[in-house]
Every structure is written in C-alpha cells, then in structure tokens.
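W.,

You were right to be curious about this one. When I first looked at the sequence I had no strong expectations either way, so I just let the prediction run and decided to look at it fresh. Below is the sequence, 188 residues in total, followed by the output.
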Amino acid sequence: MKISVGPHPIAQPNTVFVVGSYDNNGQPNLMTVAWGGICCSVPPCIAISPAIRTQTCQNILHAGAFTVNIPAVSHVRETDYAGIYSGKKENKFESLGLTPVKSELVNAPYVEEFPFILECKVTHSIEIGSYTRQFIGEILDIKAEEDVLGEKKLPDIGKVQPFVYDEVDQNYYAVGELIAKAFSLGKK
C-alpha cells in the first residue's frame, strides 16, 4: 500500500551538472545544479534551474549562455564544493585548481578537467515561484574527451562515470550497472 508523503521537489535520482558561466567582468564561475535534464530533441536542448539569488543565475541572464560540465566520480569533491560556496565571494576555478576554457561558441567557460561538456545558448528563461529560474539552453556542441567515447563516437556512460544526487538524504551515488537494453526489452 502506498502512503502519501506530500509534495516535495523529489524525482530520484537527480543528475549532477556543474554549470559554467561568466559574470559581467568576465570572471569565470561554477555552480553545481541537480535540477536539470534534457528537455528537447530537435533542436537538442537542456534545462537547468538555479536559484534566482545565485551568481550563476545572474551570469546566465547577462550572458545568455552557459556550459553544462558533467563530472566523473573522480571529481565528486570539486563538484560538491562548487555547490556549497558562492561565486559572489570567490573564483571557484582558482579555489579548486580547475582550468577554465573559454567556449568558442557561447559566452561561457567550461572545465578542462571534466570529461563531458555541453555548450548552450539560452533560448528560454522562466521564473518558477519566488526562488528558481529555469533556463533552457540549445546545445550548440558537445565536447568530450576521446577516451570517454563509445562505438558510436558519442560519450559512453560507463567511460564518463557520472554520478547522481539523492536529494532526500543528500548523498551522491555512482551510476550503476547496465540492467537492460532500452527500446528492446519491452517489445512483444
């Protein structure tokens, strides 16, 4: 029997993205977001939802662009740090010893050390409630380390080694084992 637990912002698991942006002075910034995901196929788009009060939100409003940096499990400490501390008070790239790379396509930096990057141009922005702004970004390009590409020459989840976030207990989990081939197992 199911029991009502009331409305909460829970949809387990949440993806973990590190968003790159520039402030008005060209200072690179990072912020970890767990509210986001692919939202359109044609054109390819991703949605992220940072809090309005954050430096990242203000940067994206100003620049009209952002990058989504997908960290590997080896960068969980840096990812957690980028979600704890404010870009209003420090340059998190410098604090973490990470290398900002200026995108050639959008006005935003990406993290050289992370294996999988999405370069995004803002196409839509909407305030949700009094706390969050959602940005939809068209993915103009994907940058990936050659060693994380699979047979289709696209990022392979097993090689990227991303992780997910559990907002209930506030833990990170590595992506698990392959359990079935999609669009195959469910066929008659």
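Here's what jumped out at me. The chain has four helices and twelve strands. And, maybe more interesting for your project: The mean pLDDT is 95.

Coffee later to discuss?

I.
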